[in-house]
Every structure is written in structure tokens, then in C-alpha cells.
Amino acid sequence: MLEDLTTDKKVIGIKQSQKAVEDGEAGKAFVALDCEDNVKQPFLNLCRINNVQVVMAESMEQLGQACGISVGAAVAVILL
């Protein structure tokens, strides 16, 4: 699942990801298990309300690497 992030059009980070979900542009969301709950829970609720599939990543480091960036990422979204 994380390999989709290497080729598909995506946004990385909580603000851009929230906007994509709210605007109906999110195809699939990825959330790091080790990100802070005050980031994770509201985003998971937003995805549930908007019927966006969520894939959990083991860590922020793993998610960042899958996105092709050199730092960790809490959330990322593949765009429609």
C-alpha cells in the first residue's frame, strides 16, 4: 500500500491532507501510528466522515520515506 505513494500524485502533511479530504480530492489517506493523537484522531474522524480509506503506516519515518522525503510525515493523501 505504501508503494502507491512513490508514483501517485499526493500531498504530504496535515494541513494539505485535511484540505484534500474536505475538498473531496482524497483517494486514500495514510497515517503514521506514532504521530501525536491530537493530529491523528481528528484526521481519522475527518476521513471517516468523508468516506476516505485510511491505511496505517508503522511510523512517521516509514511514511516519510514512502513519500520520498528525508523527514518523517504524520499523514499523506493520494489525490484522485
What would a concise description of this structure say?
A 4-stranded mixed β-sheet has the order 1-4-2-3, sandwiched between helices. The protein has 4 helices and 4 strands.
Main β-sheet, in a few words? 4 strands, mixed
Q: What is the number of helices?
A: 4
What's the CATH H-level superfamily name?
Ribosomal protein L30/S12
Q: Which CATH architecture is right?
A: 2-Layer Sandwich
Radius of gyration: 11 Å
Describe the structure.
This protein has helices at 4-7, 14-22, 37-49, 60-67, and strands at residues 10-12, 26-32, 53-57, 75-79. The model has no long low-confidence stretch (mean pLDDT 96). It is globular, with a radius of gyration of 11 Å. It has a 4-stranded mixed beta sheet with strand order 1-4-2-3, sandwiched between helices. By secondary structure, the chain is α+β, with helices and mostly antiparallel strands. It has a single domain (4-79), classed as Ribosomal protein L30/S12 (60s Ribosomal Protein L30, Chain: A, 2-Layer Sandwich), CATH 3.30.1330.
Throw out a few tags for this protein.
about 80 residues; 4 helices; alpha+beta; 4-stranded mixed β-sheet; 60s Ribosomal Protein L30, Chain: A; globular; about 25% strand; single chain
List the helices and strands and how they pair.
Blueprint: H1 4-7, E1 10-12, H2 14-22, E2 26-32, H3 37-49, E3 53-57, H4 60-67, E4 75-79
Parallel strand pairs: 2-3
Antiparallel strand pairs: 1-4, 2-4
